[in-house]
Amino acid sequence: MAGLKLRHIYKVYNGGVRAVNDFNLDIKDKSFVVLVGPSGCGKSTTLRMVAGLENITSGQLYIDNTLVNDVESKNRDIAMVFQSYALYPHMTVYQNMGFSLKLRHEKPAVIEEKVKKAAEVLEISDLLDRKPKELSGGQRQRVALGRAIVREPNVFLLDEPLSNLDAKLRVQMRTEITKLHEKLQTTFIYVTHDQTEAMTMGDTIVVMNKGFIQQADAPVTLFEDPTNLFVATFLGSPQMNIVEVDLVEEKGKVGVKLEGVNSNIVWLKDNTAKQIKNGGLSFEKKYLFGIRPDHIKIAKEGIPAHVEAVEQLGDETIIYTTIENHKQHVVVKAPLTININVHDDVFLDFLKERVYLFDKDSEHSLIGMPSYNKIPCHLEGNELVVGKQRIGLDEEYTSHILARAYTSNIFLAVKPEHVEFAKNEANRELKAKVEFIEERTNYNIVYASLDGASQFLTFRMSKERKYKDGEAISVYLPLDRTYLFDENDDSFFSREEIHENKCRATVSTAKDGKTVIKINGGQTLVYPNMGVEDGEYEFILKQEGAQVVFDKKTAKGIKEDVNRHAVPKQFLTVSCYDEEPQHKINTIFVKIKGFDEYVTLVVNNNFSVYKMPVFKINLTPDCFELKKI
Ligand code: ADP
């Protein structure tokens, strides 16, 4: 039996492919976790890192609280089942299943007992004498599972095990694997690109895209409270309708106006209106409005629409409609009995309880359960000022904050699911007042106000905890999951510790009047006279401003001009140490000869240090400071 912890796990392949970024997940013992996402999103890479078949670039992997980054695959007590069953064709089922035990020099009697027991569990006892070619696809997959079971591993890893089976068998094997998980009472981590497989099998589903976890939650929660546009549209069939809208306000009510549809506004419920107004969402911006086909009714009034196609499925009718000025269909799921024909003009009624709103740029969810609570705040020394409250930060926290957090508009950012209810050393109290509560299947959502801040703090609360509207409460923010964001949702908080970027340097004035800065590591920078006295200095490199000089290949890859920043004698050669890609920025950590520690720089996210292990950064005089020693 084993639980797993994945902490800030990154995988960068040779050549610079960032396959997995900042993967954080706690997997409870005996749980069934499914990694799902489109092809290439990093699922297999993650699984292979857990298996020990792939090195972890950075981050920590714990199995049962033991750090296993450097533990060999065979010593991790893990069994893996692949898409291709990879059975030995010349061996019988019995021999295939017992092979790994034989390699471990188990006694024949022990092998027999284990193989027979596994065969019973999988209901393949009568196939033990057959060779793989005498088996059906489903039977072969069972043998592959059996081969894993006999090893009695603590963790089962399954990589698309059903994708070679036909549709009917896949559905059947899905149930079998779920049953097997119940019988074996071990941890399962299962990879698939099939959303139905994921939603029906896992107790926790980890939705991935482009190497990042998008959301990790119970299936029903992913459906009810998708954290962003990707999750909202990836899960659910037919998928959520998304339309571009303006926000409008009239007599205290807030609604969404569908782009180009003049007369019709969908008014949102009062609580949502409050959340939008208090959240400071701009009424000038466009948003993406989402509603699932299940939550639209054909009604007597509402948004006028024209029926383009009708599909009658076994137990429901899918209606494809168009609305004025919208190219995309708005899809409605209706009962089979509905009497609708192609070319009918109808009205669509949107269920207000189940509407979504996403930011067009970050694609984060903004209403109901937002992706993040984003509350304006500022830093004063070691304190974070939120409305009228102050949150004391420890040194561990402040040593990870990027410099620009002290000079920019910042937002405290915490996910609703990370708010805690009991005090401990690693969290900080916030006093709040419950404004209103909404029910969900697995929890309730509480919207609470903070003294002096207009934004609500939204969080999940277990159904057992009974809060009342208006009640004064204390909640706790775990510091390791409390971030500081800028307007673009890029974090000012870095996983790596941030040191002052400093080095000793000698400044001299050349005969032609130019300022020559020789830094301790031996590199020299030359500028038109900077008016600096000759002597010994501390050279402090600012986190922002340095420009990466691209080599030809990299420049082409990211469509940048190769010579844009290549000013002669105004660059330093650096080597890659690590990076932390965000939404628009990439915090990079580089080594520069002469500097005590690695150097932290903030650059555009189109560049990855892993693309160029050694590169140049161009420095204009405002990229650094010189302090006389
Ligand atoms: P998934 O399992 O979600 O389909 P993978 O984990 O296989 O995704 O791949 C994630 C990314 O890493 C993809 O862009 C893929 O091309 C790349 N990748 C996978 N394996 C390697 C490798 N051995 N070398 C370089 N890039 C790789």
General description of the model:
This protein has 629 residues and is an alpha+beta fold. The protein folds into 4 domains: 4-218, P-loop containing nucleotide triphosphate hydrolases (Rossmann fold); 234-359, Beta Barrel (OB fold (Dihydrolipoamide Acetyltransferase, E2P)); 376-485, Nucleic acid-binding proteins (OB fold (Dihydrolipoamide Acetyltransferase, E2P)), CATH 2.40.50.140; 502-628, no CATH class. Helix content is 16%, strand content 39%. A 6-stranded mixed β-sheet has the order 6-7-8-3-9-10, with helices on both faces. The mean pLDDT is 91. The chain binds adenosine-5'-diphosphate (ADP). Adenosine-5'-diphosphate is lined by residues 13, 15, 17, 19, 37, 39-45.
* Most strands sheet: 6 strands, mixed
Question: Which small compounds were modeled alongside the protein?
Answer: adenosine-5'-diphosphate
State the distance separating the first and last CA atoms.
59 Å
Name the beta content range. 35-45%
Output the CATH class name of the largest domain. Answer: Alpha Beta
Return residue spans where pLDDT drops below 50 for at least 5 consecutive residues. none
CATH superfamily of the largest domain: P-loop containing nucleotide triphosphate hydrolases
Q: What name does the CATH topology of the largest domain carry?
A: Rossmann fold
- H/I helix tally: 11
Work out the count of structural domains. 4
Give the overall shape.
globular
Radius of gyration: 29 Å
Global mean pLDDT: 91
Helix coverage percent: 10-25%
CATH architecture of the largest domain: 3-Layer(aba) Sandwich
Strand order of the largest sheet: 6-7-8-3-9-10
Give the class from helix and strand content and strand pairing. Answer: alpha+beta
Task: Let me know the number of strands.
Answer: 39
